[in-house]
Amino acid sequence: TGVVDPSRIIFANPCKAASFIRNAARAGVDMMTFDNADELFKVARTHKGAKLVIRILTDDSKSLCALGLKYGAPLGTVPGLLGKAKELELDVIGVSFHVGSGCKDSSAFADAVMRARMAFDMGKDAGYNFSFLDVGGGFEDSTFEATASVLSDALKYYFPDRSGLRVIAEPGRFYVSNAFQLA
Q1: What is the pTM of this model?
Q2: Side by side, which strands form the sheet with 132-134?
């Protein structure tokens, strides 16, 4: 029918209006990202059943469009954010990152997966058992195979036991970058 099940949707806006969070809850969209305490307070007030994903900051210096200026929690802030989420009795289920749109350096993905592993370990220290990893996007058509190989190797190294771990990606740029030309 073309309808996407709400359980497959991630509300990933870095700064969500409380009314939008309430609407997401009514629509059955429980999964959403956060990278700061303000978002945690909003979610605690408006959607206690949310399944939260902490978005971490990565090195996006080799990308056409660096996204770190907009969102992503530096690793040093992750323990405090997870502690605050625990205090607010919120369910954090995993980690997400985005190396920036149009990433030309495949090694950025390996570094990001390493950071995600560190965030998973911080989650365990905070009392969470993460089961979700979003490796973001930024995939370039010209380097896709190399990036996929680097990403696969990094996942095998940093997450050798992936049983119970759901890994997703956001390959939007990869799909649409060659879909049109400007004249």
Answers
A1: 0.87
A2: 10-11, 31-34, 51-55, 91-96, 132-134, 166-168
Q: What span, in angstroms and rounded, lies between the C-alpha atoms of 17 and 39?
A: 9
Of 74, 76, 77, 36, nearest in space to 58 by CA: 74
* Residue 171 neighbours by CB under 8 Å, 6+ apart: 137, 139
Taking each continuous run of H as one helix and of E as one strand, the counts in the chain are 6, 8
Print pLDDT tens along the chain (183 aa): 578 899 989 998 888 999 999 999 999 999 999 999 999 999 999 999 999 999 998 865 454 454 444 578 999 999 999 999 999 999 999 999 988 655 566 788 898 999 999 999 999 999 999 999 999 877 777 778 888 899 999 999 999 999 999 999 887 666 566 676 667
Q: In sequence order, what DSSP letters do the residues of 27-93 get, joined into one string?
A: HT--EEEE-SHHHHHHHHHH-TT-EEEEEBP---TTEEE--TTT--B-GGGHHHHHHHHHHTT-EEE
Which residues contact residue 34 at a Cβ distance below 8 angstroms, ignoring those fewer than 6 apart? 40, 43, 52, 53, 54, 55, 81, 85
Q: What length does the chain have?
A: 183
Main-chain phi, psi angles of 4, to 5 degrees: -90, 135
